Amino acid sequence: MIGKIAGRLDYKAMDHVLIDVRGVGYIVHVSDRTLASLPGPGEAVALYTELLVREDLLQLFGFPTLLEKEWHRLLMTVQGVGAKAAMAILGTLGAEGVSRAIGLGDARSIQAAPGIGPKIAQRVVLELKAKAPSVMAMGVHLGTVAETDEVIEAAPTPAPRAAKPVAKPPSRAAFTADALSALTNLGYQPGDAAQAVAQAAQDAPEADTATLIRLALKLLAPRN
């Protein structure tokens, strides 16, 4: 599985780019939004990738962040939404826009993507509404843009590093903070979001970030 590609951008086409990685060229399909954000030919570029395998075809799809990659994978679980349709939705709305549309039940925003009709848009909202909070929770930590070194040539083998201390598991405060961040990114007012998250945390003391988001969205829904 090819999860990330970093190299020099050879050229941009209508729906894909060619990235040279130490003499090997990779064709990577990207959304309009991603294409517009990439540098010019000859510049260093990095994309997270998803490899689509079919009987007679191998295709790489590229994303600037892991969050967008996760949304692409989730969108493709909806019946009638293939890889290109998922890219069209992400190209129109971006990762945060998809989060907002599904979280708020806004099928019209999904329908704004090229080739997405009302039935598919409604299906996306209905089928992913329960799954979306998990990706929203991941989004707090997966929004970093893929990075590439300025020099693409092979680097010398680094010296062994000392073992890092084992990280402590996230605290309840971290779960509530991440849930609050996700809700404000959806467009909710900080005060309303904080009140909903606080109530959700009180109702479910053992809830993780995704569960807090799901419960808070239910509390906020009547206000929309």
TrEMBL record:
<feature type="region of interest" description="Domain I">
    <location>
        <begin position="1"/>
        <end position="64"/>
    </location>
</feature>
<dbReference type="Pfam" id="PF01330">
    <property type="entry name" value="RuvA_N"/>
</dbReference>
<dbReference type="GO" id="GO:0000400">
    <property type="term" value="F:four-way junction DNA binding"/>
</dbReference>
<dbReference type="InterPro" id="IPR010994">
    <property type="entry name" value="RuvA_2-like"/>
</dbReference>
<dbReference type="InterPro" id="IPR011114">
    <property type="entry name" value="RuvA_C"/>
</dbReference>
<comment type="subunit">
    <text>Homotetramer. Forms an RuvA(8)-RuvB(12)-Holliday junction (HJ) complex. HJ DNA is sandwiched between 2 RuvA tetramers; dsDNA enters through RuvA and exits via RuvB. An RuvB hexamer assembles on each DNA strand where it exits the tetramer. Each RuvB hexamer is contacted by two RuvA subunits (via domain III) on 2 adjacent RuvB subunits; this complex drives branch migration. In the full resolvosome a probable DNA-RuvA(4)-RuvB(12)-RuvC(2) complex forms which resolves the HJ.</text>
</comment>
<dbReference type="InterPro" id="IPR036267">
    <property type="entry name" value="RuvA_C_sf"/>
</dbReference>
<dbReference type="GO" id="GO:0006281">
    <property type="term" value="P:DNA repair"/>
</dbReference>
<keyword id="KW-0238">DNA-binding</keyword>
<dbReference type="GO" id="GO:0048476">
    <property type="term" value="C:Holliday junction resolvase complex"/>
</dbReference>
<dbReference type="GO" id="GO:0005737">
    <property type="term" value="C:cytoplasm"/>
</dbReference>
<feature type="region of interest" description="Domain III">
    <location>
        <begin position="158"/>
        <end position="224"/>
    </location>
</feature>
<protein>
    <recommendedName>
        <fullName>Holliday junction branch migration complex subunit RuvA</fullName>
    </recommendedName>
</protein>
<dbReference type="GO" id="GO:0005524">
    <property type="term" value="F:ATP binding"/>
</dbReference>
<dbReference type="Pfam" id="PF14520">
    <property type="entry name" value="HHH_5"/>
</dbReference>
<feature type="domain" description="Helix-hairpin-helix DNA-binding motif class 1">
    <location>
        <begin position="73"/>
        <end position="92"/>
    </location>
</feature>
<dbReference type="InterPro" id="IPR013849">
    <property type="entry name" value="DNA_helicase_Holl-junc_RuvA_I"/>
</dbReference>
<comment type="similarity">
    <text>Belongs to the RuvA family.</text>
</comment>
<dbReference type="GO" id="GO:0009379">
    <property type="term" value="C:Holliday junction helicase complex"/>
</dbReference>
<dbReference type="InterPro" id="IPR003583">
    <property type="entry name" value="Hlx-hairpin-Hlx_DNA-bd_motif"/>
</dbReference>
<comment type="function">
    <text>The RuvA-RuvB-RuvC complex processes Holliday junction (HJ) DNA during genetic recombination and DNA repair, while the RuvA-RuvB complex plays an important role in the rescue of blocked DNA replication forks via replication fork reversal (RFR). RuvA specifically binds to HJ cruciform DNA, conferring on it an open structure. The RuvB hexamer acts as an ATP-dependent pump, pulling dsDNA into and through the RuvAB complex. HJ branch migration allows RuvC to scan DNA until it finds its consensus sequence, where it cleaves and resolves the cruciform DNA.</text>
</comment>
<dbReference type="Pfam" id="PF07499">
    <property type="entry name" value="RuvA_C"/>
</dbReference>
<feature type="domain" description="Helix-hairpin-helix DNA-binding motif class 1">
    <location>
        <begin position="108"/>
        <end position="127"/>
    </location>
</feature>
<keyword id="KW-0233">DNA recombination</keyword>
<dbReference type="InterPro" id="IPR000085">
    <property type="entry name" value="RuvA"/>
</dbReference>
<dbReference type="GO" id="GO:0006310">
    <property type="term" value="P:DNA recombination"/>
</dbReference>
<keyword id="KW-0227">DNA damage</keyword>
<keyword id="KW-0347">Helicase</keyword>
<dbReference type="InterPro" id="IPR012340">
    <property type="entry name" value="NA-bd_OB-fold"/>
</dbReference>
<keyword id="KW-0547">Nucleotide-binding</keyword>
<dbReference type="GO" id="GO:0009378">
    <property type="term" value="F:four-way junction helicase activity"/>
</dbReference>
<keyword id="KW-0234">DNA repair</keyword>
<keyword id="KW-0963">Cytoplasm</keyword>
<keyword id="KW-0378">Hydrolase</keyword>
<keyword id="KW-0067">ATP-binding</keyword>
